[in-house]
Q: What sequence folds into this?
């Protein structure tokens, strides 16, 4: 396997000595700008932040190279994009105006709150404050109170803090809400006449039981014996959200909906996401569709793309559809079974062509009316999920293939492709070596042979002790999928062309795809020179949303395990580091850290990276990823979102415990 070249150019401009990157402020208040493709970060003193805050994307002027530390030093020349403009903290009122003191440090300044911007807050209230302006000459910004928090609701404050830390606004701008509210509910006849009318075709949705925004539906009708017309219908958000409006700007800034255990922060106002665009049963809805003529053998004979109007006849939950598949009875059983049969054919064909079959297991908390976790729900991908997944993949691929053929002045039309790079050799080879210890051989000569090796391994490990560790490490070995106009294909799916078309209610790239596709269908594509910037922003917001979701899930894990302090559980080692190892409990799926400090009474442990394990110097005892282990819950810190576990030494291990080395001193 040849090592890939990144093809990326550094941000640094040699003529102006400017660099672009993200400001990382330490707890001590010192700053570093992390520049892509530059080995060393740029050191920034607090007095040179020039109003930049932690997480902001900035342009830095490099001022000197410090020969003593061998570091570049600089100052912020420009704030390109703020990560966060809203903060949680406490307000102090004095003579009709207020001062806001943020909860967290990392260089976040106090704020001056004018008297008419306190929004009814009382002295000492916990509030969310938004920066409204920050003059160059002022040390602190001006702000306004966005909302007053209920100090007794710790869960609500924690979830809001997680969202704000990730750079998501908690509320839509008033103008955006007003614009959404003004959109008429009734579809004009003139608009229906411009579209392909599918209202007489059997159509239904399949979604999670708690879903409110149904953004995709399937339709089915038989054309002739053995040939069916199957439609993938997607909510036509781009009809309602026009470019460069305040509604569009709010959606772009978020770029994604964020799903926390007890709430959803939507990308679009509820009037659009849950009402106007949601493909609810027994209602006419505007959609953007990919309609296929497919044989019962899964052969696609024709594809049509365009705007439609539909009328959903039925709403299935995944559980409803799964019951029809398993029992062979129920509503629209013939149609569900036909679609499922086709989906399984598509799925099998994908894996034969090089897609990688990583299994997915979703863990959610069952919450009480106050948002407290009272149980664990483990959701696995079943055939009803795969049915929807395969038809969504089919539509996404068809749209990307259609647009990929369009050229403007012999150049590809700028378009937000969803891409996934091949595995990086530096990450892959250690994993291949580790997998070999379990008897799994990898052929790394070509990307195709690597994919085949992954699938063979994933099939062979089903039900074996090493399944969890090899699946998790395999996923970490993979590159991260992202949005870009540079179409390098999607390695994990095995597609040369792929995009996101099927979830415009919750993903902004899908809105961009709809707009560009319509331009192409109209024969008037308009190249967007800012496409890569938009792709970068959407990828960054997607990562931020995932981090927020992980942080919120971790909070719930800690909150849940507070009920089990001092109790023992079986777990699986899920990660290792020089300072300890992480264990995920088998029953609760809650991950905590066993510190090496808690192992000192047994042995002195050192990290062996290539084996993903900690090894005792005297005993040879190993703690390796994937090993089953018994632990005790010893601490659950909600503020730090941290669980601490202790290794429970079994009797047989106690007998093997090595004697400590003498320190050389004679006993008196």
A:
């Amino acid at each position: 396997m040849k090592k890939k070249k990144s093809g990326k150019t550094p941000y640094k401009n040699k003529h102006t000595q400017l660099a672009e990157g993200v400001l990382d402020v330490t707890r001590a208040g010192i700053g570093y700008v992390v520049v892509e493709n530059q080995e060393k970060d740029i050191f920034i003193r607090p007095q040179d932040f020039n109003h930049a805050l932690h997480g902001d994307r900035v342009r830095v002027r490099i001022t000197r190279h410090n020969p003593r530390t061998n570091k570049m030093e600089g100052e912020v020349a420009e704030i390109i994009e703020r990560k966060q403009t809203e903060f949680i903290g406490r307000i102090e009122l004095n003579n009709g105006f207020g001062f806001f003191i943020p909860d967290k440090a990392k260089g976040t300044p106090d704020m001056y709150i004018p008297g008419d911007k306190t929004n009814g807050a009382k002295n000492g209230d916990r509030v969310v404050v938004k920066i409204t302006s920050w003059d160059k000459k002022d040390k602190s910004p001006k702000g306004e109170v966005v909302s007053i928090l209920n100090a007794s609701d710790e869960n609500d404050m924690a979830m809001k803090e997680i969202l704000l830390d990730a750079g998501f606004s908690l509320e839509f701008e008033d103008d955006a809400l007003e614009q959404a509210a003004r959109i008429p509910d009734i579809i004009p006849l003139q608009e229906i006449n411009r579209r392909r009318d599918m209202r007489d075709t059997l159509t239904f949705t399949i979604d999670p039981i708690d879903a409110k925004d149904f953004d995709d539906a399937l339709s089915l009708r038989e054309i002739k014996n053995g040939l069916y017309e199957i439609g993938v219908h997607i909510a036509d958000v781009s009809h309602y959200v026009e470019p460069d409006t305040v509604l569009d700007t709010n959606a772009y800034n978020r770029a994604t909906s964020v799903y926390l255990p007890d709430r959803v922060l939507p990308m679009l106002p509820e009037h659009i996401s849950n009402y106007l665009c949601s493909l609810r049963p027994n209602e006419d809805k505007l959609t953007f569709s990919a309609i296929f003529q497919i044989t019962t053998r899964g052969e696609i004979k024709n594809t049509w793309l365009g705007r439609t109007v539909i009328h959903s006849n039925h709403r299935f939950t995944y559980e409803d559809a799964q019951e029809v598949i398993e029992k062979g009875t129920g509503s629209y059983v013939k149609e569900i079974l036909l679609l499922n049969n086709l989906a399984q054919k598509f799925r099998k064909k994908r894996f034969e062509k090089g897609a990688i079959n990583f299994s997915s297991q979703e863990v959610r908390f069952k919450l009480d009316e106050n948002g407290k976790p009272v149980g664990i729900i483990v959701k696995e991908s079943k055939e009803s999920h795969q049915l929807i997944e395969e038809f969504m993949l089919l539509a996404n691929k068809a749209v990307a293939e259609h647009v990929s053929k369009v050229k403007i002045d012999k150049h590809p039309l700028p378009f937000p492709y969803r891409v996934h790079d091949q595995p990086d050799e530096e990450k892959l080879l250690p994993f291949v070596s580790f997998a070999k210890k379990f008897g799994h051989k990898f052929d790394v000569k070509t990307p195709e042979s690597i994919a085949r090796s992954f699938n063979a391994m994933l099939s062979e490990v089903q039900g074996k002790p090493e399944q969890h560790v090899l699946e998790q490490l395999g996923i970490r070995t993979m590159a991260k999928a992202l949005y870009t106009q540079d179409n390098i294909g999607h390695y994990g799916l095995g597609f040369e062309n792929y995009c996101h078309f099927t979830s415009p209610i919750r993903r902004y790239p899908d809105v961009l795809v709809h707009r560009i596709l319509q331009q192409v269908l109209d024969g008037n594509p308009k190249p967007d020179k800012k496409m890569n910037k938009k792709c970068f922003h959407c990828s960054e917001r997607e990562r931020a949303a995932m981090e927020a979701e992980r942080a919120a899930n971790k909070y719930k894990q800690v909150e849940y395990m507070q009920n089990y302090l001092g109790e023992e559980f079986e777990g699986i080692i899920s990660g290792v580091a020089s300072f300890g190892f992480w264990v995920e409990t088998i029953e609760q799926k809650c991950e905590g850290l066993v510190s090496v400090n808690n192992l000192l009474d047994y042995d002195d442990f050192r990290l062996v990276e290539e084996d993903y394990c900690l090894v005792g110097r005297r005993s040879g005892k190993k703690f390796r990823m994937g090993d089953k282990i018994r632990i005790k819950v010893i601490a659950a810190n909600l503020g730090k979102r941290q669980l601490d576990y202790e290794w429970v030494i079994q009797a047989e291990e106690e007998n093997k415990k090595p004697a400590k080395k003498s320190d050389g001193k004679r006993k008196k």
Remarks:
- The chain has a mean pLDDT of 90.
- The chain is about 30% helix and 30% strand.
- The first strand starts at residue 18 and ends at 25.
- The first helix runs from residue 154 to 165.
